[in-house]
Write a structure and sequence with these properties.
The chain has an 18-stranded antiparallel barrel. The chain has a two-stranded antiparallel sheet with strand order 4-5. The protein has 4 helices and 20 strands. By secondary structure, the protein is mainly beta.
Length: about 400
């Protein structure tokens, strides 16, 4: 009887302790997110199309202890309107015709191989565990890896692709093991590994950052194995890439300045450099001005040199521009307390094509925002941005 009573007491004590711990964890857990709808309108060769999506993001954040935390979010997205596209509709006719001739085929026969369908999705966007110690911080899981200081471009960033129509839109998490080790009083060394099939194609990166006299300086090294499609054989070709880069940001007399550069060494392929320089300034009335210059060592000096593979790379995951030199500039002006009016301008200095897009942000209340964006491309036929077609999008987001 004594043994049974002792056992029962221990079970009740364990359950009580577990219950208190669980209650404490629940109290430290936050659930939040947003609903988003975006309507995108674009003028293509085949006519004007409408694309629409609904997105719901669910976030969870919990503090397990003062030194341990867990964060994750799931995105649910459904597509409507024109969900089936073809990449041939986004490239010049002469480029498509020349490619078809080289393939001894016709565009109509090749089109099914370049179809793109947007499918409804449920994805684990981010999910990571963080641990903080006196000498180092650790993070394991699918996480944000924002590298670089640029707005429209980031030469040192291997992990994220930017949409030039909306460069600051949230990025998908990258599966990685990350360690941060502080040094001196204002320094930090970051090392990370993003696992591949084996050690050879596992991405490795290292960055050292130091803050001094109002400026952030960093140097970085990264290794990755890139997969590119050969559009004549439709086989994947692997390129081992080493990136040596650095960036700096700060301000002088109220003018913000930043720069970012990278030298890319390919074991089999063309080595190339990338450089970005930017500046911004905010006036007393709230008017904000910014501009960036970007040099792309992979680009061509003339639109006649753009190849079919170049167009596919730009439209695909790599998202690299076609020309060598670019300027991106913008202005933002608050109109009252609830509206921001912006205008952005981008030009390919080599083929003289570009894009102008006005942008309006409306804060309907603390939890609801509306964005309206239009874009007008310009340039001669066959140039980079002239192939976009006029368009725009509206995005409604409701936070909860």
């Amino acid at each position: 009887m004594k043994k049974s009573a002792t056992t029962l007491f221990l079970i009740l004590l364990t359950l009580t302790t577990f219950s208190k711990g669980l209650d404490s964890l629940i109290n430290k857990t936050r659930f939040y997110g947003y609903y988003e709808n975006q309507l995108f309108i674009q003028d293509l060769k085949t006519g004007t199309i409408f694309q629409d999506y609904n997105k719901v993001r669910f976030d969870l954040s919990t503090e397990i202890t003062k030194k341990l935390s867990f964060n994750c979010n799931v995105n649910i997205k459904s597509y409507h309107g024109k969900t089936a596209l073809n990449l041939f509709d986004f490239i010049p006719d002469n480029v498509a015709n020349n490619y078809a001739k080289e393939m001894n085929s016709t565009i109509e026969d090749l089109r099914p191989m370049f179809g793109l369908t947007m499918k409804n999705e449920i994805i684990l966007d981010n999910a990571y565990f963080s641990a903080y110690t006196k000498h180092a911080n650790f993070r394991i899981g699918k996480q944000q890896l924002p590298w670089g200081t640029g707005y429209a471009w980031n030469p040192t960033d291997l992990f994220n692709d930017k949409n030039l129509l909306d460069p600051m839109y949230e990025k998908t998490g990258v599966n990685a093991f990350k360690t941060e080790i502080p040094f001196a009083s204002e320094g930090m060394v970051t090392g990370l590994i993003s696992v591949g099939d084996n050690w050879e194609n596992t991405t490795k990166a290292l960055k050292a950052r130091y803050y001094i006299s109002g400026f952030d300086f960093s140097i970085s090294y990264a290794y990755e194995e890139e997969n590119q499609i050969n559009y004549f054989t439709f086989e994947e070709e692997k390129y081992k890439r080493q990136l040596f880069g650095g960036d700096v940001s700060g301000s002088i007399l109220g003018v913000g300045i930043w720069a970012e550069g990278a030298y890319n060494h390919l074991k089999s392929g063309k080595n190339y450099k990338q450089l970005l320089i930017g500046a911004d300034y905010t006036f007393m009335n709230g008017l904000y001005l910014m501009a960036e210059f970007y040099h792309n060592g992979l680009g061509s000096k003339n639109s006649s040199e753009y190849t079919f593979a170049d167009w596919m790379a730009m439209l695909g995951a790599q998202g690299e521009n076609l020309g060598k030199n670019y300027i991106f500039a913008g202005q933002l002006l608050p109109i009252g307390e609830l509206v921001n009016w912006s205008n952005y301008f981008m030009i390919n200095l080599n083929d003289k094509s570009g894009m102008i897009y006005p942008w309006f942000d409306f804060s309907l209340n603390d939890n609801v925002e509306l964005i309206l964006v239009g874009y007008v491309p310009f340039g001669k036929k066959g140039s980079e941005f002239a192939e976009y077609g006029m368009g725009g999008f509206g995005r409604l987001r409701v936070y909860f």
